[in-house]
Every structure is written in C-alpha cells, then in structure tokens.
Amino acid sequence: MMKKSWLLYFMGLIALCGCSRMITKESEEKEICFQVDILKMQEAEIGSRAGLNVGDKVGLYIVEQEGEELCLPANEDFYLMNSEADGSLSFADGEKHVYPDNPINIYGFYCKGMESVPADLLAVPVSIPNVQETEEALLSSDFLYVKSEERYRGVEKVITLNFCHQFAKMKFHFKTDTPETVDLNKITDFKVVNVIQEGNFNIATGELTLGNAVDDIEARVAEDFEVIVLPQKIEGNRVLFHFLLGGEEKSYTVLNEGMPLEKGKLYKCNILVNRYPGAGDKDVVVSIQVEDWDESEPPIDVVIEDGQNVVVTLTDVSNGVVVDRADLYLSSEHHDREVRNVPVANNKMEFVFPREIEGGTLRLNKAHFHTVTGDEFDYYFKDKELLGDNLDELSLVAPKVGDAWGDGVIFAVGKVTGYDENASSFVTDVKGINAYRGRMVASKSLGKLAWCEKGAQGANLSVGASDENNGRENMVALENFIELNNDKLENYPAFIACRGLGNGWYFPAYNEIRCVVANKDMLNTKISEQEGVEISIEVYSSSTEVLRDKKYTDNAGYKYEIGDYNSTKISTISEVRAVRAY
User: Fold this and answer.
1) What PROSITE patterns does its record include (predicted)?
2) Side-chain half-sphere of 573: how many Cα atoms within 13 Å?
C-alpha cells in the first residue's frame, strides 16, 4: 500500500488572505479588507491545479462568536467576495462591513459554478463531470475550502487563511521503449473507470460524504493530460483506467492492497507501453510497478507490455521460503531491462519476455524476490542466459562463504547472531529466509585512511560507535554524533570512503574485519577473478570504539580505543576495506 509519507503534500498555501483594518475618522469603526495574492496562487497552480483568477468569486462565512461555544456557519453569515485585479477581495454587495467586537470564525470555499450560498451548509452538493477533455472542465471540477483554525478578534492585525483542495488530481504521461512497434499517437479513448463522481460537502467540518453515482471519466490524450477525481479508495484487483492502442484495449489494474486517492494530492502516472517481438502468437500481459510515494519519488510507474508470454521455474529454493513476487534485472547487447512485480506461484514465474529481436535471448544479472511472509532478498547470477522458451530454470542454491556476490565476495552466510573467537568466524542462523542473508566484502581496497581528521569533534570524544559485529550501527551512531555536535562526515575519511562505494556499503566493525582477514585465502580466489585487490597481512582499520585500556594491533584487525588511546584515531593510518550486508 502506498504510504502517506511518500505523497507530495501540494495542498499547501493556495491563498494568503490578509485581513487588515481601516479606521475611519468619523466612526472609528474597523472595516474588514481582505487582500489575496492572486499571482502567488497562479504560480502555485502551474502543473498541478486550478487557481483563483481575476473575476472569480469566493464565498466566505464570517461567523460572530458569542461566548465560548463554537458557532457554526449559517446562511445569513455568507458573503460573496469578488476577486479584483489588484489582488484584493471585495464584498460583492458593495456594502461596508466592519470588524466585530466579538471573536469571529471564518469558513469559505471557491468552486466555479457555485458562486452563491448553498441551500444546506451541512450537505453542499459537489460533483465532477464525466467528460474532462478541456481545461474548462478541469477548472470547474476543482473545489477549494478554508476553515479558520482559531478565533479572530478586532484587535488582531492580520488573518491568514489557507485554502486547500478537497479533490485529487491525476496526471498521465505516456512513453515507450519500443518506438518501432508502438505509436503513441494511436492512443485513444482514455477513461478512468467506475469512480464515484458526486458527494455532499460539510462546510462546517470540511468532511466529504461520497454518493452512489459511479461512472467513467473521459479524458483527452495529450503529451501530459489530467483528470480530477473525488477522494476515494480504489479496491485491489480492479481496473482504474483503460485506453485503446491502435484499436487494442489496454488497462491498468490496481494491486491487491488497493489505492487511496486522497484529497489535495497529485498522482503522477508515467505509463510505459512496450511491444516486444516474440516467437509465435503474442499474448497480452500487463505488469505493474507501483512505488511507494515520498517526496523524492512521487510518480506511479505503470508498465503495459505486449510480447511473448514465457514461464521461468525456480529450483533449489531454501526450505521454508515461499516466493510470491519477483523483480528481474535483465540486459542484452544494447539495453538494460527491468521487469517488475512478476507474480510467482508454485515457484513458476510468468511474464512478458522483453526481446529486442525475434528469437533473441537475455542475460539475467540479478533478481529481487518477495516472499509470502513479507521478507525480501536479492539473488545474483553470473553468465545466466534466459532463452525464453518456457524451459528456463533459476537455481536458488543458498550461497556460501567465498562466493562472488554482486560487486564483492561473501565472508559470512546467514543472519549474524554472534562471533566465535575460537573459529574467528561469525555464528549465524541459516534457516529459511536467513539462508539468503549474509555479508560481503568489497573486492577493492580503499587504501590507508585515518579514522578521523584532527579537526573532527570525535577525535577526542567517543562518537558512540561501540558495536563490534555490525559497522552499519556504528555509522548510524556517527551520523547522530555529527548532527548533535555540528560536525561533518568529511572529517571521518574511512567512513565516508566506504559509503562512497554505493548504497549499503559501510566501514566494518571490529569482528567483521577480523572475519574477513581470517577467511582471506578463501576470499582472495574470487577477488582475484574480479580483478580486485587481494586481502593481505595488514593492520586493518575498524569502525568500533570501546572503553578499554588496551588496543588490538594483531593481523586480524585494529580496534580503535578511547580513554588513553584517543590519538590513535588521527595518528594511525590503516588499511580500509568496505563491507555490506545482503
């Protein structure tokens, strides 16, 4: 299910309405004057929503409060406001309105086509049109609402109101990786299907109650086009939209978890349409990639592919592991391909084989597997060629120490539960999913680096990097220390060099580098094959600090100390080699 934190909160500040008071000499009455930054609203609107324009009318309910009990808006509290060219809001009745002595609450709305007082403030009828092929249709579909979060008095100088969108907007963009077989100009008849299109809005609470009218929304296909929908939940396994491509119908089905369309949210849908050459009759299969929304990656990526439908069988799967979904990372002579969310049932995967030419094969580099228990694991392959003939098999034999794995070599297999001093090796659990857990060391060396620079805050203080078995925990401790002490990561050369290798790499803890050195003969065989730098008899640096009055300088690793040995962090330049959990 998509997370709330992954959605951009673009409702934000739509209108800044400043309420200033003009004091007349004759009566000393305080006249209410609203000012709206129309230009700012129009700038905020670009690419995401309709905005308030000159000549539009805004409805405000200015409710005078008597006593402490909250006063809800009534029809007689309604004031129709004109949006003027100078950015002001004036009262449409042309009358003078003065600031009351009692506190006031403010409610309001803006919607094209609704420029008068509603009959029932607790059930204002709102709806969206089922044909949204023009900009005017989008503008008339939007609904903005404001409710003051506090009571205002006549002595206050400024009132700021934040208008928020109550509907959701979806923006669509088509693209293709196979332009020789897909003509995007032939996409027609785009519809968002079976969505609720009417409801009742409560001006007092800002709550929307959905009605029962369900219909399709028709949109005009363009380079980027939009529709506005009422906020609602689209249940899993239901088609959300469909279209025609050269007369053939394509559709997008929501995943089992469902899809919430939330008010004030912009849903960007990038639709990738591919048609690959196959071998024989072509079946249509829809594969879907939906990423969790967050501030860095808001779009929904939808993949709709045509081509030969093939089956690949998983073998030697570890006991107790049931795979139900897979992401495949494929490559050919000219392209890298990712096939996401491939369903797996009874260890069989069925998906569209993205061939470049008829009869072509693909190299499988990595697969990311999801299990029925919610666990995930990566599996790396070397020189694995898929023929796409329904006879392909992928052996998932649990890896072992000394195997090449991704861009490194495995030095521990299983979930780490401790360290055996006698065997100089980690104690691990390898049952079930843990058979695919472990740790790897980088094939390359980072050279001789200091733990920290002389000017680092942690040069003479403990940063809290006390974990002896997991350098990732020490990295977290250092980051927390840096934040609290106004320090910077650049002052810690070994840490930043390990992170620089890429996602997941870190400066190893003491027992991690000891285990690596203890297994160097087994690891060096693969490191040499990868044209890396072999592990030698060196004093290797670790990320671990401890409160002891001695330091280790054996060939298995180096354990940095605090207390009497603060200076070793900056004076000792030792060999650094990064590790990563997989």
Assistant:
1) PROKAR_LIPOPROTEIN (PS51257)
2) 7
